[in-house]
Amino acid sequence: MSLFKARDWWSTILGEKEEFDQGCMCVADVDNSGSGQDKIIVGSYMGYLRIFNPHPVKPGDGVQPEDLLLEVQLREPILQVEVGKFVSGTEGLHLAVLHCRKLCVYAVSGTLGNVEHGNQYQIKLMYEHNLQRTACNMTYGPFGGVKGRDLICIQSMDGMLMLFEQESYAFGRFLPGFLLPGPLTYSSRTDSFITVSSCRQVESYKYQVLAFATDADERQETEQQKLSSGKKLVVDWVLNIGEQALDICVVSFNQAVSSVFVLGERNFFCLKDNGQIRFMKKLDYSPSCFIPYCSVKEGTINTLIGNHSKMLNVYQDVTLKWATQLPHIPVSVKVANLQGLKGVIVTLSDNGHLQCSYLGTDPSLFQAPQVDSREINYEEFNAEMKKLQKIIKEATKTQGILLPFLEVKAEAVPSVTVKVLRVTAQKPNLAVCVQAPLAVTCDQFVFDDLEPDSSETVVLSVFLKGNCSPSELEGNCVVSYNTPTGIPKVAQCNFRLPLRLICFPAQPSKAANHKLTIDTNKPPISFLTIFPGRFLNMSVDDQANVLGFEFLTGSKTTLLASKTSQRYRIQSDQLEDLWLITEELTLRLREHFKKQNCKDFACTFSGSIPLQEYFELIDRHFELRLNAEKFQELLSERAVQFRAIERRLLTRFKDKTPAPLQHLDTLLEGTFREVIALADAAEENQANMFQAFTKLKSATHLVIMLISLWQKLSTDQVAILEATFLPLAEDTQELGWEETVDAAISYLLRTCLSKSSKEQALTLSSQLCMPKDTSRLKKNITLFCDRLAKGGRLSLSTESTTQQAAVMPGKT
After folding, report:
1. Do 201 and 238 meet the contact criterion of CB atoms below 8 Å apart?
2. For 353-375, what is the mean pLDDT?
3. pTM, two decimal places
């Protein structure tokens, strides 16, 4: 966005490995020379205090020895430097230096030199205040309307304003509702202090309110700054800006009204004296510092705002007038008058890059030589362009490719291989994710830089963690890396874990509570063909059409293939256990016929949708959610009771006259045991709720598959169905599965599955809250299946879908 770079007038690097921040620089005629020329005062966290008077021979010259007027090392880190009338009896300017536990005021003076080295400068300590609290920042001004002198106000890290009337300490006041210190400034027009609290509010406090509030003035002098001193204040006005502030500045120029400028993290505010917003500007970058200054246009104020992109923007009110590039990220910016040049921009970075610059351009004396004119051969240019485009296309076709491959073995340990094709990956990071209750021994891997055509292999183990079967056997690998140019990229791949991870072959069972029949359009395939290898080591050869599975949790599932019809039956005592076996069967059947180049293979379902059994799982999960709420309420009540008994006991123990406890200790112990018992019960309920949600997800996957096979849904329609019934990866009390699915189904019933325009006009609730029961959800799921049976089609488009007749299978 910058048209020109900031023109370097003078610059230098301060020290080595020193750190600087917002308050470490100020500009003023600190030596009272009377010439109107500003000096640059810089203090560092290493304790170095430097004063510069730049006067380059020509713009862009580096620092000269005589530019550094003074350099002295103080014993403590310098948090902030300010220049004002801080010494009584004189209106001369003095330098105030704020340390963590000390405030020092110095007089800067110079003597004429008799040799070529120039004048000599020194500082003299006028007075100092030892602080009982750790300081954060300070501000100064004619507090209370005093004439000819400036008072100092220091904000401590624990929220106390300490005011000093030059050589003497005045009083201290606590800020109400304080958590963390914010920027602080003083407005002489309203005689008030303005800061931004941790509540993200701009707050103003009158000096008179601070002065008349009672404090520890009646105490001894040595106790005036102790922790017991101070009193909470009443705020004058408050403005909520909704973000933390980086800096505050109060300006009042002749042609502009007095304004309070606040630089936030994403916005720039200009306020009136009473806290009302004059204007605000939303910033599309992350600012680092700012300074308002006088504008040439009447009624407006110019503002310099530096950001973390090394840019310095010039605004006239809210209008961007100029943008310039800096060589560093500024943490402090000032406007100074140096060597008769008015409006020099002084910037300081956090690592000590101090620069004085100006805006504009320098005239260029270079003249391009005249080029010999010649005729243009367009055919030659076109041929060269096609050749270059072909080279670019080939280079970008595989550029930036980093592919993770995962090799899954049922008998051995799974391994992940990351292969790199024609790209250099810097510090690639591999993350392996699986669905709970599955877990991996290590899910994060960091490699060294990978060169093109290289690979890295890591070995990991996946195991079942918990006493319930997972709802999915799929996982993914994600590799994040940076290209040599610094561009971050991500590559990922999905994988499927073997069925042997969660179950093993077992003796088939004849009886079962739940049975499903999957129809196909091809003759049945022997299980010896689609389940090869050692998976059938416990099966009998003459029973190739029957296969039993026993999960690690103990439940069993049986798979049968019909000898006469094109059907497969899956049966189990638990509805959720049917899902993984049914999915594995359909996947292996499709893979088998795909290898035989059979493209018309299809699976269908014409049985009954097990909605009643599905609703039982929903009720079980919802019941555990209700129990979790009850446990939370009981824990809250017992905790309140426990704290009340503790307060009573502390009152008894602090009483100077002993009094009987009246069995409060027994009551405290009993309440403590109840809290521990309730916490254990809530933890056990949470584990049961996780298992119930896993079972519910397995049953939901099964219902989605049966509906898709029954209605022959397309891939996009199956995706809508999955987004409707499986919107959450995790189930919480604040946002649960029941209310989320109910809202999604209600939306589909009101849009693509609606019967009339009257249903489309119904408005849905904008808030998701936990329902009282599951009757509405079960009713909507039943109505959802009925609408699909009567020809409804899933679509997210606004156009009405064509209704097609279908046969609804009977529900159990």
Report:
1. yes
2. 71
3. 0.51
